[in-house]
Every structure is written in structure tokens, then in C-alpha cells.
Amino acid sequence: MPADRAPTRIQRKNRAAILEAALDVFSSHGFRGSTVDQIAKAAGLSKPNLLYYFASKEAIFNELMSGLLDTWLDPLRALDPEGEPLDEILAYVQRKLQMSRDFPRESRLYANEIVQGAPRLHDVIAADLKVLVEEKARLLQDWMDAGRINRAHPKHLLFSIWSLTQHYADFDAQVRTLMGEEDPFHAAPQYLETVYRRMLTPKS
């Protein structure tokens, strides 16, 4: 799409429709299993019309992921060094769980990319995510060294939080089938709080 003038309302609407459709298609089929034709059909546009806005499937994917990664990293960025350690960690767990509830397609899109070896995200993981995880792992270690939370490997602690919270989005069909009529997110917040509170509360 030409970049020398501001997009019209219709152009903004079409771009949003393409990205929304692409999120559905990519999160269902992964990058490799998705096609421009599928995305165009889901967006209600012709393929040539879609290609007016995005030159390729890769361009659509990159646009989606750039926004997703910021959203995905924000809960970890919010872990406050000045806060009460256990409260900060429990709040982080709840933020991650809420993201699984509110953004299941985005979670599956990210998971699909990682399962495929992160060919389009490797540089981001090796740079932005690694830097953030190193920073927060040091913070967790400092809290442990000060006796403010129980000792645990800080990076594995983060991995476990990701696993236990993102499972509800990435394995949504399985979770909802096994839970039956019960909303999986009804008891999950209290369950996860109990798990991490018991794990991390220092013994008096």
C-alpha cells in the first residue's frame, strides 16, 4: 500500500480485516499451513486486493507478530522490583492467565511459531526476550537471596508460569472437553495462586 499519504477509513478497515483474518488462519494452521488465499477468503477480500495492502504472507505474519510480542512481554515487564515479591509474582501469574483467556489465538500463534523452531522469531527471542528474562531472573534471584521468597531456579520458575498459564489457550479444545460445562477459568486463578503461594512463601 502506498506510504506517501495517510490511509483512508476504508483502507484502515481492510487492513484490520486482513490482520484479524490472518490471526484466525495462522493460529489454526500455523505459518507453513496457511496461505494468502485462505487469509483473503477469511477477510472477505480478493487476493489481489489483499496484496495491495501486504506484499506477502510473510509481511502479514510479521505485522501480527510485532504487535503480539509487545503485548506478550508487557506482563513480565510489569514485575516491579520495588513491590512485595510474592504479590508481584502472583500478580504476574494472574496477568498471564488473563492473557490466555483474552488472547487465545495470539497464544496459539506464538506457540505454533516456537514449535516450528522459531524461524521467524529467533532473533527476537535471542535479543529482546533474552534480555528481559535475564533481568527478571536476576530480580527473582535477589528476592530469593534476601529470603523474601523460597529458593527456586528463577528461569525454570518463569518457564513453569508460562506453561501453567498458556496451557489454557494452547490446549483450549482439550481443556474445555475435559472440563465439560465448567468454565476452565473459573477455578484456575485460585488454583494457580495456591500453587505458587505454597511454593514461594518462606517458612517462618
Automatic annotation (TrEMBL):
One of its GO terms (molecular function) is transcription cis-regulatory region binding. Pfam families: TetR_C_3, TetR_N. It comes from the Bacteria. Keywords: DNA-binding. Gene3D superfamilies: Homeodomain-like (1.10.10.60), Tetracycline Repressor, domain 2 (1.10.357.10). Residues 12-72 form the HTH tetR-type domain. PROSITE patterns: HTH_TETR_2. One of its GO terms (biological process) is negative regulation of DNA-templated transcription. Residues 35-54 bind DNA. PANTHER family: HTH-TYPE TRANSCRIPTIONAL REGULATOR RUTR. This is TetR family transcriptional regulator. It comes from Leisingera methylohalidivorans DSM 14336.
